[in-house]
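Researcher: Batch entry, complex prediction.
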Amino acid sequence: MSADTHSLDLLVQALRRLPGVGVKSAQRMAFHLLQHDREGALVLAQALQTACAQVRHCALCHTFTEEEICATCRDPRRDAAQLCVVETPADQAAVERTGAYRGRYFVLMGRLSPLDGVGPREIGLHKLFERACDGTVREVILATNFTAEGEATAHVIGEALRARGLQVTRLARGVPAGSELEYVDLGTIAHALVDRR
Amino acid sequence: MSADTHSLDLLVQALRRLPGVGVKSAQRMAFHLLQHDREGALVLAQALQTACAQVRHCALCHTFTEEEICATCRDPRRDAAQLCVVETPADQAAVERTGAYRGRYFVLMGRLSPLDGVGPREIGLHKLFERACDGTVREVILATNFTAEGEATAHVIGEALRARGLQVTRLARGVPAGSELEYVDLGTIAHALVDRR
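Model: Structure tokens for the complex:
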């Protein structure tokens, strides 16, 4: 690229700030937008600016919202005695889609990951502890991911909340619905054996 | 997502207009920008708007530029008798990096792909023919990709330009530098045998 493609180069650099986008993908995106979808580029620019201006965190559950308190936390029909802790709004949406949970949420917006510099403060654990100990919550359901970091996060939160006298549960580990044992990995079967009921 | 995340939903929709970005990636991008990199989101918004306003096509070679004529076409040291036809600015950059070519370019900004509605007009073949027949060009080097569509595009251009009395060549097909025959695919070896010298 030469000097007279300065704004194209800046666009490629800016696209690289998106997670999972390397230099080749960023170039392909920039070429596509400029060649075939300039309207889409302007729509995206507008959407980015609007979202940055409008979206903030719910004062209660920490998820993304445009209000002071998010719609789920405002809903009086939801059970205030149960608090489900998830890593991201996408995880919250997955739990919601099951239709099997009618309590409240706390969204960590991340997971403990000391190697990446993400400690208790970064994922707002102090806010979670404050929220969980507000007197209305009786059970905290840990629904962080079943990855190493998600498990570690669940462990830390569980220890801290049990010390504060709260009932803490974790999503059940086991064989996924619809699966054949032959094709399930060994760790999952081992866990399902230990947690059999 | 509920009604109070309207601008977040719009952002996810807008991100999906990027090539290769599905709903999960778009969500991850939106969450990442809003949670960790709002400055990056605003930089990207600005870069999109600037690029849309500034970037246009070179009047001679059709590549992206901010000037009437791009830097490569303006460069008087480049050989005007040779015209290298490539699909994208990225391909042009790849040829440039070799340092083995000192002629001019024509960038198609695509390839013939009738099933996607991309015909001769969409990739500016009329401009290429006009450019190639301006009296200065003696050799047209077809450097479209060695995919089915790239080959078809090269074939169509080659036929049309030979009919106009121009010398047309194609990048050599063969075994890549540094490769062991054992691991080269059969089609490539077959072509290298046919084109042996």
